[in-house]
Design a protein that fits this description.
81 residues, 4 strands
Length: 81
C-alpha cells in the first residue's frame, strides 16, 4: 500500500508491526499475555521489494527475520513476560 511508505520511499514502522501481529496470530499464548517486542531495522525496505519472513520459536521467545533478496533487513524478538 502507498500508505506503508514514508516520504523517502522506505517502509514505515506500522507495516513492520503488521508482520509481527500476523506472526503472533499463530502464538496466542504470547500474544494474549504480557509480552515484549524488540524490532531492529538494519536496512530500508523500498517499494516493490519482496519480503520473506523466517521464524523460530524456542520456549517463550519468538524470533523473526525479514529478508529481501536473501539479506536480513529487520530482526524481531517477541518474548512472553
Amino acid at each position: 500500500r502507498a500508505t506503508d511508505f514514508d516520504p523517502f520511499g522506505h517502509v514505515n514502522n506500522s507495516a513492520y508491526w503488521a508482520v509481527v501481529e500476523d506472526e503472533l496470530s499463530d502464538h496466542l499464548d504470547i500474544r494474549t499475555g504480557p509480552h515484549r517486542a524488540v524490532i531492529e531495522y538494519l536496512k530500508p525496505v523500498t517499494p516493490n521489494s519482496r519480503i520473506m519472513v523466517r521464524r523460530i520459536r524456542v520456549g517463550d521467545r519468538l524470533s523473526l527475520w525479514l529478508l529481501v533478496n536473501g539479506t536480513v533487513v529487520t530482526t524481531v524478538v517477541v518474548t512472553k513476560c
